[in-house]
Amino acid sequence: MKKTEYIKLIDTTRCTACRGCQVACKQWNEMPASRTRNFGSYQNPPDLQWNTWTLIRFQEHVDKNGDFKWLFRKDGCMHCTEAACIKVCPSGALYHTEFGTVGINQKLCIGCKACISACPFDIPRFNQETEKVYKCDLCYDRLKGGQQPACVLSCPTSAITIGEREAMIDKAYRRLDQLGGKGVVYGDKFVGGTHVMYILSEDPAVYDKLPVKPRIPASVILWKNLFKPFTLIGMGAVAGMAALHYLIKGPHEVHEKKEGDE
Amino acid sequence: MSGKIQNMVRVTDPIERIAHWLLAGSCLFCLFTGLGIMFRSWEFIPELLGGLYAVKWMHIFSGVVFAFALAYAFMMWKKDCAFEPDDAKWIAQGGGYLWKTNNLPPVYKYNAGQKLFFWFVVVFGALIVLSGLVMWNPTAFPIAVARWSYALHALSALVIGSFFVVHLYLGTIGNPGTFQAMTTGWCSRAWCETHCPRWLAEREKGSSES
User: Where does this polypeptide localize (chain A) (predicted)?
Assistant: First the structure.
């Protein structure tokens, strides 16, 4: 069976911040609303939550020429190919689906929260009551049924589209040409390529909470590629050396004083 | 007095033995539940104990016991395990375990190897406890602290786990007559002359009047 990798392309230059995707996501995934607070922005709720898997971030930006711009970015799981969350997940709750996306199986999640600090995009959120982690799964159930994710379907300006990997990367660069090269394609150059990509109108560094060079944290690589295997290797090697010592040198016997000492 | 008691010396008191086994028990429980969480090849441990979620909490509670046992053991043994100049000579000769030596400095209560083990457990035990506390609620800490706690926790487990194997070997079959120091608390007089001659001499000098 040939694996079809999908990429969801978010063209921020087309986004009007209607937040239809945010609502569609909640509706399809049956996520309840939480009390929110106004912090002087249309951005609502203020951040991703266990029950808010995608969020339009509103940002006021003045560029080098003194021009004011209102930037909208749909935040959510980027579905990395080299996914730090999957690397640290001890239970197998986080996994790669046949579409290359990062699925999550809450039945397996033990709420260890390791994925929360490992994620370079700060996406997974913890629910205190269920003691489990939640995040976007790119509507895995819909993809399996041959349907588009809810956010894609809801988007009135076609800012969000989905398709096969190569075709979408192609599409992103064609759109960049259309924009006269004024913009950035984000997502194909790091963590093995993400399965959510952006067309950004500004430099990535301009955007709130968007890492310029996301990567699996060095601490995770040290932990999983070095310390973890060496725990068993180290204990095994020491046990082997002890056994050799016992066979070659023998135990360290106590020097009893001979005869008549008792 | 019976002959048996006359030739035996009480080397540990009950409090020391209880503290030792509390520390050892919680440490080993943490070690094996930790391996069960970290390695798919050790899946039998969560399967035996009722699943990964249960094991997560067992690991945390056992870690709390370990923290208190470690703090107590530190207070109790830090004096006996303070290094002295002769320890360097002991270490330079590998404690006589690796090649033939004939001028090992006489040991007081614990030899330099035991002291090293003690300090490794204290230092990496403290690190594993502190990093474990961060991992319990990582979102309450700055992201860098949370991230490095996981790496530090794994490194400490690697160090403690490896030293544990050495300790197990030297405390049992590697040194016959030693294990009972942590069971009955009585070791033979000859054992004391081999392993802690200065302590024995001081002890016998002190009690000769009574």
Answer: Cell envelope
What pLDDT, in 10s, does the model give residues A186-207?
Answer: 999 999 999 999 999 999 999 9
Q: What pLDDT digit, counting tens, does each position of A56-81 carry?
A: 999 999 988 999 999 999 999 999 99
List, for chain B, all residue ranges whose pLDDT scores fall below the cut of 50.
1-3, 209-210
| φ and ψ at residue A18, rounded to 5 degrees | -75, -20
Cβ–Cβ under 8 Å, residues A95 and A102: yes
Mean pLDDT of A217-229: 98
Tell me if chain A has a CB within 8 Å of the CB of B94.
Answer: no
**What chain A residue is nearest to B140 in terms of C-alpha separation?**
A117
Please identify among residues 65-124 of chain A the ones whose CB lies closer than 8 Å to any CB of chain B. Answer: 88, 90-92, 108, 110-114, 116-118, 122
Domain count within chain B: 1
CATH code of the domain containing B188? 1.20.950.20
pTM here is: 0.93
DSSP letter string over B58-115?
Answer: HHHHHHHHHHHHHHHHHHHHTTTT---THHHHHHHTGGGSSS--S-PPPPSSS-HHHH
Range of the domain at B193: 3-96+105-207
Asked if the Cβ–Cβ distance from A254 to B143 is below 8 Å, we say no
Which neighbouring-strand residues pair with A52?
A: A49
- pLDDT for residue B5: 65
Q: Is the pLDDT of residue A9 over 70?
A: yes
Q: Residue holding tokens 């929260």?
A: A113
Token pair 């199986």 is found at: A105
pLDDT in tens, A32-45: 999 999 999 999 99
B138 touches A: beta carbon within 8 Å: yes
Q: Mutating which of A112, A131, A220 best tests the B interface, going by the most B Cβ atoms within 10 A?
A: A112
Name the minimum distance, in Å, from the CA of A253 to any CA of chain B.
Answer: 6
Residues of B in contact with A252 (CB under 8 A): 96-97, 174-176, 194
H or E segment at A184? Answer: strand A184-186
Q: Are A252 and B96 in contact (CB < 8 Å)? A: yes
